[in-house]
Amino acid sequence: MELTAGQYTLIYNAFSFAIAAMGAATLFLWLNRSSVAPQYRAAVTISGLVTAIAFYHYWRIFGSWREAYEVKDGVLTATGVAFNDAYRYVDWLLTVPLLLIELILVMRLPHGETGKKAIRLGFLAALMVILGYPGEVSSASSTRWMWWVASMIPFLIILWELASGLKASIANQPAGVRSLVDKARVLTIISWCFYPLVFIFPMIGFTGGTATTLVQVGYTIADLVAKAVFGILIYMIAVRKSEAEGWGVSSGEMAMAGAAD
Amino acid sequence: MELTAGQYTLIYNAFSFAIAAMGAATLFLWLNRSSVAPQYRAAVTISGLVTAIAFYHYWRIFGSWREAYEVKDGVLTATGVAFNDAYRYVDWLLTVPLLLIELILVMRLPHGETGKKAIRLGFLAALMVILGYPGEVSSASSTRWMWWVASMIPFLIILWELASGLKASIANQPAGVRSLVDKARVLTIISWCFYPLVFIFPMIGFTGGTATTLVQVGYTIADLVAKAVFGILIYMIAVRKSEAEGWGVSSGEMAMAGAAD
Description:
CATH topology of chain A: Rhopdopsin 7-helix transmembrane proteins
Order of helices and strands of chain A: HHEEHHHHHH
Oligomer: homodimer
CATH class of chain A: Mainly Alpha
Number of domains of chain A: 1
Helix content of chain A: over 70%
Number of helices of chain A: 8
């Protein structure tokens, strides 16, 4: 048992923090849905869906972590029940395509482009997650590297699309939101790069408890940024774009704005 | 074991009280969201978010307290499972910046000021919580003092900002709510001062069970005032300001107010 009681507790608290933050983000997004124009509600709903799914999985991850170890009088012992790493991948399989759809929806690309882009990027995101899993559950460095490389292919295609493809569409956004949309794009790119980096920690010299801590806390921080912080940013873009398009918050104004269309 | 069975039960009941009060405050705030004008709903939503996050953490704190001790036939024994003090700090890391944002949002500062103030105060609040934690988990008085002093620096900057910076903005509030907004500001200052005071109880002569009781019950009372009572006050300000700005509760009146714009 290489994990120390301190490392165990740190990971434990990081998981609990993620439960609270994902739950709070979900409630915030869903409670504020009506304060954006109808055409942006799908983006905000899906943002909340992503954090809700993450809330569920962190609840499970936390429970699995509690079952896997026991701390008595400051001494940590493994119970023999394995910590279930698969929850993360199941989560990503659902949330990563949704995250890309969020971003595409809030940008309001020209008709026809949205669906095509969402399907292609969503498929690539799912492929990326599936290819990463066999590496994650392996303790052999060579196996980990092989699947990491395989997973990096769809990853880099998505990143390229975000970096270049979506950048071009930013010019078509209203002036007031251009920098905010660009921030969301850059936040996606940066937070996503965190994942393959965390993945390789156990392959570049970190071992035992240190590797476990880096991987678990690292993925948790990456998830918080990529899902909760990103979701709030999507919401802010939706609010700003609603305003730019003349949509007021009160339903009186909404009725008037609707009539003016 | 210095904690008595009576002290254990008192703390136990204080935690359960906090679960009930935080849950009730959350439901009250969210159920009444629609009775304030749309521009104040974000403040009320976030007030409910703060008590919801506190509800979650008191649930966990209560569970951890139950696991840490056992009372059988009036005799208290420690189970060897450590009580997790970190839940409070994880809670504060999320809720304290949100509390400041609540206050700033309900004041409706001039455009541009809100975001800047929220980010600066939010960052200082997070720093304050992070600097307090290493002291909280230490039993050495000198270590506790060191981190207390470090944490007091951002604390005093925030308090100064609330005392002077926000005071200036109060003159710009509608006449009917000025005193209510000032109450919220003073309540924030007073309830916040409670925390560093509770922190130093174990350093100024209180030991064993007495120190534990003072710290746990003290933080719980401080949390109830700073989050639930404060949240209700924010709601009352939002109601009063909605009225002052001609926003009625019924949607008929709302439509008329919209048409009059």
